[in-house]
Amino acid sequence: MVAVDSIGSGTGSFVRVDPVTQRVRLGPDSAGYRVGVCWPEGGVDTVTVNDANLILGYLNPDNFLGGQVKLDRERATRLFKEQIADRLGIDVFEAAWGVHNLANLTLKLHLQQVMLGMGFGPEVFHLVGYGGGGPLHAIGYTHGLDLAGVMIPTWAPGFSAFGAACGEYGVRQEISTDIFVPPPAGVDPTGIALQIMRGAYDSLPPDVKGSVDEQLAQGLRLEAAMRGVLNQVALDQLSRAWSSLKGQIELEASREGLDPTRLRFVFGARMRYAGMLDDLEVQTGAPEIKPETLSELAEQFEVSFDKVYARAARSTEFGYQITRAVVTGYYESVRPTVPEESLDGETPAQGCRKDHRPIFWNGTWHESDVYEMDRVRAGNVLTGPCLVESPATTILVPPEYRLYMDRRRVFWVVRPGEDVAMYKGR
Questions:
Q1: Where is the Acetophenone carboxylase-like C-terminal domain (predicted)?
Q2: Half-sphere exposure of 18 (CA within 13 A, CB side)
């Protein structure tokens, strides 16, 4: 599973000036595949971030989708001036630059929020810029972030499909549960754990209660005597839930014409401290449940908890609640591989540079080299300002930045002051 956090700031986002505040707003609605006013056939009347990028010289009007879609820069400039620049009382290129920068800032702030919300700084993350418009903004919205690395694969437009092709085919089933797991041995239960354990004692069947009473008569504390009973109850409940879910997956696989015996099962649960509101998912690779299963799940929960919350918030003494039982059956699939190329020198071959055109960056026009992405060789270093074009995406490299292509045809962003050598071993 992949957690997806959507940001409404794509290159198709509509751009408007608020009539009351005179502030520029991006989205949340979008032109989508219709690009912007620069493509008259799209039927769009409101300017978009794409229009701003075209005005600034970042997009090639004759090479959008390999030339299948012709963009009208003059129309984009005229309508952008009417709808945005004139209302702000500024030059159309300054207005377009402001919109481009606003899109970058929106992405950057959301990115920071996600990283810091997880409790980590940017230095532990690598960022992959992909999609059609992503590579155009990747360097802009990561500027100033101390990320471990920023990479842009040459297959960026098809990166999502590539990722789907790399994944295993899985069938997932889950069910709500209310299973209490006592604190581990050596941890004295307190609070809600004691309440649950004492309440469970009162509802025990007579034969089980008699066994517990014998242990109490020998001087064992109630919570110690109940720990083994409740662990066994939890194991039985979880085992039944997993077995039922496993059977459902096998039945579903059979209905789809797949061989259930080829499935690889992963068993998991969503757990939380007893009384806690939020739960976390943990897994065990064991094919069958065993006495150690509960302790393995609890240990994994503690590790996951420390990654998400402060360690000081641990509440092991409350015990655990399993809120959902989860089973996933996976089929091994043939996965695509990324071939490696031999490294050339840092200087691109003569045929790699196909054109040059002016681009507007931070208030200044720069003469920019334009490279054909497919002609860039592993080991080449491209120095900004430049543009790297393919039929379905464009990488914008601002002044003072560079790109290095590795053996797998992945571009690494070399930030100002960095040595290219630090990326050559990746």
A1: 234-411
A2: 8
Could you tell me the two tokens for 333? Answer: 């699939």
Residue 71 tokens read as 């963009």
Cα(231)–Cα(179) distance, integer angstroms: 10
Q: What is the per-residue pLDDT across 385-397, written as a single tens digit (0 to 9) for each?
A: 999 999 999 999 9
Q: Which residue has the tokens 């999609």?
A: 131
What torsion, rounded to 10 degrees, do the Cα atoms 15, 20, 22, 27 define? Answer: -20
Q: Which of 420, 380, 390 is nearest to 136 (CA)?
A: 390
- CA dihedral over 308, 312, 315, 317, signed as positive or negative: positive
pTM (2 d.p.): 0.76
Q: Rounded to whole angstroms, how far apart are CA atoms 343 and 268?
A: 44
> What per-residue string of b and e applies to 339-375 under the rule 16 or more CB within 10 Å gives b?
eeeeeeeeebeeebbeeeeebbbeeeebebbbbbbee
Q: SS3 of 257, please?
A: coil
Could you tell me the CA-to-CA distances from 63 to 8, 260, 348 in Å, in that order?
A: 26, 48, 22
Going by C-alpha positions, the residue among 28, 103, 139, 48 that lies closest to residue 403 is 139
Q: What is the pLDDT of residues 83-130, one digit of tens each?
A: 999 999 999 999 999 999 999 999 999 999 888 887 788 999 999 999
Q: How far is CA 179 from the centre of its chain?
A: 31
